[in-house]
Amino acid sequence: MKSTREILEGVQSGRLSVDEALDQIRGLTVEDLGYARIDHDRVRRRGFAEVVYCEGKTPEQSAEILARLAARGASNVLGTRASAETFELLKRSVPDAEYHPVPRAIVVRRGPERQIGSVMVLAAGTSDLRVAEEAALTASVMGSRVERVYDVGVAGLHRLLREVDRIRKSRVVIVVAGMEGALMSVVAGLIDKPVIGVPTSIGYGAQLHGLTPMLGMLTSCVPGSSVVNIDNGFGAGYLAHMINELGEGAHGHRED
Amino acid sequence: MKSTREILEGVQSGRLSVDEALDQIRGLTVEDLGYARIDHDRVRRRGFAEVVYCEGKTPEQSAEILARLAARGASNVLGTRASAETFELLKRSVPDAEYHPVPRAIVVRRGPERQIGSVMVLAAGTSDLRVAEEAALTASVMGSRVERVYDVGVAGLHRLLREVDRIRKSRVVIVVAGMEGALMSVVAGLIDKPVIGVPTSIGYGAQLHGLTPMLGMLTSCVPGSSVVNIDNGFGAGYLAHMINELGEGAHGHRED
Amino acid sequence: MKSTREILEGVQSGRLSVDEALDQIRGLTVEDLGYARIDHDRVRRRGFAEVVYCEGKTPEQSAEILARLAARGASNVLGTRASAETFELLKRSVPDAEYHPVPRAIVVRRGPERQIGSVMVLAAGTSDLRVAEEAALTASVMGSRVERVYDVGVAGLHRLLREVDRIRKSRVVIVVAGMEGALMSVVAGLIDKPVIGVPTSIGYGAQLHGLTPMLGMLTSCVPGSSVVNIDNGFGAGYLAHMINELGEGAHGHRED
Amino acid sequence: MKSTREILEGVQSGRLSVDEALDQIRGLTVEDLGYARIDHDRVRRRGFAEVVYCEGKTPEQSAEILARLAARGASNVLGTRASAETFELLKRSVPDAEYHPVPRAIVVRRGPERQIGSVMVLAAGTSDLRVAEEAALTASVMGSRVERVYDVGVAGLHRLLREVDRIRKSRVVIVVAGMEGALMSVVAGLIDKPVIGVPTSIGYGAQLHGLTPMLGMLTSCVPGSSVVNIDNGFGAGYLAHMINELGEGAHGHRED
Amino acid sequence: MKSTREILEGVQSGRLSVDEALDQIRGLTVEDLGYARIDHDRVRRRGFAEVVYCEGKTPEQSAEILARLAARGASNVLGTRASAETFELLKRSVPDAEYHPVPRAIVVRRGPERQIGSVMVLAAGTSDLRVAEEAALTASVMGSRVERVYDVGVAGLHRLLREVDRIRKSRVVIVVAGMEGALMSVVAGLIDKPVIGVPTSIGYGAQLHGLTPMLGMLTSCVPGSSVVNIDNGFGAGYLAHMINELGEGAHGHRED
Amino acid sequence: MKSTREILEGVQSGRLSVDEALDQIRGLTVEDLGYARIDHDRVRRRGFAEVVYCEGKTPEQSAEILARLAARGASNVLGTRASAETFELLKRSVPDAEYHPVPRAIVVRRGPERQIGSVMVLAAGTSDLRVAEEAALTASVMGSRVERVYDVGVAGLHRLLREVDRIRKSRVVIVVAGMEGALMSVVAGLIDKPVIGVPTSIGYGAQLHGLTPMLGMLTSCVPGSSVVNIDNGFGAGYLAHMINELGEGAHGHRED
Amino acid sequence: MKSTREILEGVQSGRLSVDEALDQIRGLTVEDLGYARIDHDRVRRRGFAEVVYCEGKTPEQSAEILARLAARGASNVLGTRASAETFELLKRSVPDAEYHPVPRAIVVRRGPERQIGSVMVLAAGTSDLRVAEEAALTASVMGSRVERVYDVGVAGLHRLLREVDRIRKSRVVIVVAGMEGALMSVVAGLIDKPVIGVPTSIGYGAQLHGLTPMLGMLTSCVPGSSVVNIDNGFGAGYLAHMINELGEGAHGHRED
Amino acid sequence: MKSTREILEGVQSGRLSVDEALDQIRGLTVEDLGYARIDHDRVRRRGFAEVVYCEGKTPEQSAEILARLAARGASNVLGTRASAETFELLKRSVPDAEYHPVPRAIVVRRGPERQIGSVMVLAAGTSDLRVAEEAALTASVMGSRVERVYDVGVAGLHRLLREVDRIRKSRVVIVVAGMEGALMSVVAGLIDKPVIGVPTSIGYGAQLHGLTPMLGMLTSCVPGSSVVNIDNGFGAGYLAHMINELGEGAHGHRED
């Protein structure tokens, strides 16, 4: 990476010993908890701190990792699929942590307050809200202004059509839809901005826990869209923010 | 079935011997070719002659079965997925047979000419025409007036919206769509008539040879629709005619 | 749509301002609850009010949406997959709401009482009753007379054959079947009316939670049938009523 | 196995050296061609010679294996999925070999002529004949009398019902069916004999190259049946003969 | 069916009125409980009473159907996948009913005591016992003598090999196996009797709840076997008894 | 849409008759060829002309649609999955059409020459080039500067690592990968720009014609990425250009 | 097997009677508990005692089998997927049994203490620990020295790269990874030792309970790796030990 | 990696300039052909040159890459799935290249001749030879002594049992099997060496082009085995050699 040259120049000039250089090249920005290795370099490398996926971890593990990230203070901190129990544990050491029950997410605000551009989150039905809110919260915590238009599935197309002008004004659009997920194609056909499809597991039988809208969105007859995993509001919000940030214009590559 | 009573009364009155009655009950309307048993009772029972699915049969077999049905003359005769070779063989014995190359179908006109109500056939894209034409031909051969609106996929929604009035005036609507098949949901949401979805195998990758639009149509968020097999234009046209016929009003059950 | 002309003529004549016309074109018949946008235009457009799929919504959300639809009073109101808790909440504001525990559905009667034509509901086994009753209730609430013939699976074919005359007299037949779903093909082969197959998730192992009868019904060797999603009694009942209504004869398109 | 005692007694008595006994225990009835090990012990162990599945082998390999088995002369010899080219090669060394083009099988008659009991082969449609004939030929070559009833799919149920008496008189019934494969359940429900279902790949789309009838037959609501692989007429015929042979009454276990 | 002739002769001779004959032809042996139609003709037609699959039925429904079958007394009565609650309800009216907790089955003994031939039940592992016992109980209740060899999976092949002689002496062999189900192929290769494979859902991950051994058994390289649904011990036991009964020799078709 | 207000104001002011307004609202920008409806409004609505997917269309149909779009001259014209035969037909009427054989695409240059920002296309292996080149061509034809880094699969990670600086300097990255598709996750973890994954069908067996890398990319442990259909280089290039265009800074919504 | 010669020589020399020899050949090292046949020969044949998979067995069954194996004392004893209840039962008769709660395993130490070579266990994330620990414990109980490097998923590649030297020093590497499982390919590309991939079910949606990383690992673009079942830490540890043992150099085949 | 220290020490000592060091760190051992980046570092890193998978590459591309690798001369060179056309092209510049038609592989011998330990390749049937020979050739070209035992499928178990002693004497065993793949479990249960399963696509219907044996091998009830992709003889041979090499005893990690 870019700074490897600097490290080598440090060695050349004698400013760095070989061992110091080795450490830096190997990324000493990793904090080792035994069961986890926190990647504190991620803010520099990717623009946002490691996000903690709490499912499959014990509440103790999740809370400790979140606390360490918050202590670092390099950016806002986000934990997804977090239980209330994890939140209670975390609050003891990080009293200003927030819990968002609909998307089941924990936020600790440590980064600069920003509200750039705008990310539009559409949801086909009321049942898709949990996922839509995860997308909206993620983009917002990362620094995007977020707008929401919910329950505009294709069964009542005019509900969507009357919002088209507003949708077209955002920089990037997230479409959250279960059942057959047709909303994504319809939206993408009406606008000229990138569309991120989030299939949800809402439905039954042939819906196959979200595989059907996922496959449908991937084979959409409308270009200009792409797809994230089923129920992955987080991934959609993260990507939407990245795209939104590009729209800030003077944005170059991070390390310049 | 209803006529069983009549057969039994024939036996009671002595008009029928037991063996004659047995034959009738067992359906002597079957013509046995060894490799096939032609079901001549089907016109009485279902309102239309047996339709011959020519795939997997030798041209000789298909041509002979079609010729036998034509000879019976009880209704129009239809052969689907028929090769030109089958048609050439058939024409020797049935000179007025017709071949329709786009849907690869053979027709022999033997029934009354009818053009009842109307069946609307929509196709999402130009690539779906082969299936759409199979549906249109089937309904037409059975006696329905058929209208076609092609290439109205959701990528350019206004192409569809300007035809909505016309679509709403038909009795039943067939929607033929490949890719993700979103057109079916959109159409069903705009009208108050039964919609029959025909997923097609047009597409690639995650389209899974038509499984994706098939699953999508089955999990549509819009009620009032149902689905037939992938690329099954024939099945859709057949069902559409049946529904269309109901709209003729005074229609009772066939054998009364 | 048709009335767009009227709106434009209203603008031309000065009866409507541009803003009023915009609202009407954009469908101000939508009622926005934040988490839901109730589509009050649906009765005009599709002949029946929006049906509320209660799964994935909170009881509070379901109850409020149902209450709003009932208040509008434009047609009967139906909530499917509704919990008893949702019903208890709804009853506070809509005391005449009914709960049907077998299909887990809520009904509020606000439309005209009708019992047109007839819809026949067949169920292959006793275990399929929940789905069959959802189909029957839906068609009935929409205005169809409904008949039921249950437990007539192909393991004991004579149970079905003795009911064939009665089945043939209905306008449209719903076949509800789990296991391999063979009943649908057998029924469709015996009658001349549209058949709607409803695969159920009754079975285990290779039954794949209903995928097996769903695929089997879609590939039926008998034309004249189509298929709805697994366990989707509601969709079958809705479509059956639409088809049944066509049989009322003088029925034209809704807005004429 | 049973004869191990005999071998051991041979060693004990000095009739067999240890090395001879080892050879016998290890099955010196194997003939090694390098690319194949012909299992000449199979007649003793299973009652019929090894059957050669010719697909995936070169014609030379298939022909040589068949010739070796024929030379042994212990029972009839069967090669399935054999090309005409394989047959031409074989005929040079085995002039009395027969080729059956519909099931694409080679037979060399070396066993006793037998026609025990009876095996009934049903086929739902004309397109299923290739598989049905493979089943019929296999059972026949093994020594069963075979009867055939073809094109009796459930679309015209009376074609089947009139043959029920005849079907009931056989010892075991093979049902060959593509599409959704419903015929197997219907047949099994009408008789009191074992039914072997052979799903075929006839159909398209949701038929999934035979997976759909295979799954349907496995989840049949009618007990008394079991299933072999898609298009596996050979396997069905082989098993049917084994069952048929049990009906010969005095049949004990082979080596007694 | 065969007795149709007798009915017709009854009409011819005046012994039966037309209406009586119609009833008989239509199968008045059906007892209608509203939610179920008990098929009392099944003993005559198939040799054993309808077996009640209790899953998906309420305990009240299951218990009543079982009681009615027991009251008829035509053969032993079997209820599968039955809860203890169903059994408690049944015992009130049928005090001699038995509950078998491992296979979760209810038996009421009303038929003749028989122990014909023998059916061998093999299980690959201790975890497969529930399914193996369902197979063994079913065959036994129908009249077969049953032998069991359990925990002989291929991981320790010698456990199986030492039982081969005993296995070869039975008329038909059921192989119950989870994981990859290799035991069925190995057993079938060693004997000359029909083998019925029962894949079980024992395993995890790529075992796919039993689909993997099911597919493996269906594609076995060893002929002479066939497969029933995953965990379907009942179906295997039922079929095994049917086959075993054929071995009784003088057995003709049932109604002669 | 936005211009509806203008149309209405035209009617209000008398500039437009009602019929003229209806035509405009209904989108008279559609050109109807019978088998196709060319959506000339798409440039206005989406910023680029309709792209013609030539597979499944006859060469005559594809060539005519491309010629009509070229005649309109509103933007560059792109035909994907085009045969050389289609190109030969097109060249007769559009002599300056170009054929790109690796991605099998046709281009007619009619739009402004632009080379904005940059889109990076990575390919894991040499076998993925066809898809990578389709992506690169699409983005380029739409107006993006495109860079390529090919054959940097994870089997030799250092090939990728030495290009990371260059990759990080682009605005959006397309990763084309077959086999297991691991490259996408690795790339996304190293940069702070949006990543579009394109799974390819390169591989065999468990690769499932691209389903495996598609599923893998969708479940990537690295956020900031999304996925298009298997082998869909076109979709990736289209979306990448859209995102790249956002980076031009002052970009507002199109119709302002 | 090899010792068959010895047995035969025993018979030849008169040291063994035929019946004794039969018993030995048939493997009298099997201990029959009715529901289980303990394979005490396994230590001789495979180098380690039968491992007990406790899922699907009752705690009583598992505990008894483990106790019998421990009593034999031939090698360490391992029970996987064991409940605490099983452990409590076992401790009564085997007080020195150990319970490992993370991998849910029971160990009874009866074999020689060994710590040969080394097995490296990598885990992509904290959520994969349960499986990783099962692998580590298994290899360790069998006699391998085990090293662990956890939470080195590809999202932060430098966490892995800094451990490459250490990883390269082990004899065999187990990679435990959920999500898309890309870690296995990356690791295999960096080292020259056998890699065993263990896909885990950690993830959701398109991760398909582990099928996605399993398929991905199987289609890895990097040779030198192979795959065990989803979540099968035990299988990976077992195989890793076997491979590790080969590295002990003078190791010949067991029975020499 | 280890040599990074050396590079850094070179910089420190002035032996290397910063730019030279950067090149070395970034891996200048990559040779860039535009469409391919040849990884000449692979011999050092992994012990064997990059293997060229020729499918999906043009013959020109494959031949050039192979020629470059041969020119480097660092180890033997292997091209898999290579056409005769590729070989003809290659021979022009590399006259001593060999073509192996059964496994369709190209070999150029440039490494030291070795024949270490032994790798055993088993094939279940004659149809599996193409894959088995790819495995055998790969291991042999890498330096292993290879033994072959073919056509020992479980249908004739004694063919396998008589070879067990010989199999047990090898260091690692590859089992190549199509159909249901049961051979792998049986073999693994009999020996104490690592087993690598290679499922093949030999079979039809439920064999699912090899998915069925692949899933079966992954869920084998016998530990000590692992699985590579369907038909991936190359991957199995590569891994087998790696394991075999471990058995050479004094083998440490490569760079020491």
Average pLDDT score of chain A: 89
Shape of chain A: globular
> How are the strands of the biggest sheet of chain A laid out side by side?
8-7-9-10-11
Strand content of chain A: 15-25%
Number of helices of chain A: 11
DSSP helix fraction of chain A? 40-55%
Largest interface: B-C, 47 and 47 residues
Radius of gyration of chain A over alpha carbons? 21 Å
Quantity of strands of chain A, as a count: 11
Structural class based on helices, strands and sheet pairing of chain A: alpha/beta
Task: Name the assembly state.
Answer: homooctamer
Termini gap of chain A: 12 Å
Question: What does the largest sheet of chain A look like?
Answer: 5 strands, parallel
User: Which stretches of chain A are poorly predicted, pLDDT < 50 over at least 5 residues?
Assistant: 250-256
Order of helices and strands of chain A: HHEEHEHEHEEEHEHHEHEHEH
Describe the structure.
- 8 copies of one chain form a homooctamer.
- Chain A has 256 residues and is of the alpha/beta class.
- Chain A is 40% helix and 19% strand.
- Chain A has 11 helices and 11 strands.
- Chain A has helices spanning 2-12, 18-26, 42-46, 59-72, 84-93, 129-142, 157-161, 164-168, 183-190, 211-218, 233-246, and strands at 30-32, 37-39, 52-53, 77-80, 98-100, 105-108, 116-123, 144-150, 172-177, 195-199, 225-227.
- In chain A, the strands form 3 sheets. In chain A, strands 8-7-9-10-11 form a 5-stranded parallel β-sheet, sandwiched between helices. A 4-stranded mixed β-sheet of chain A has the order 3-4-6-5, with helices on both faces.
- In chain A, α4 packs across α5.
- Chain A is globular and about 70 Å long.
- Residues 250-256 of chain A have low confidence and may be disordered.
- Chains B and C meet through α8, β11 and α11 of B and α8, β11 and α11 of C.
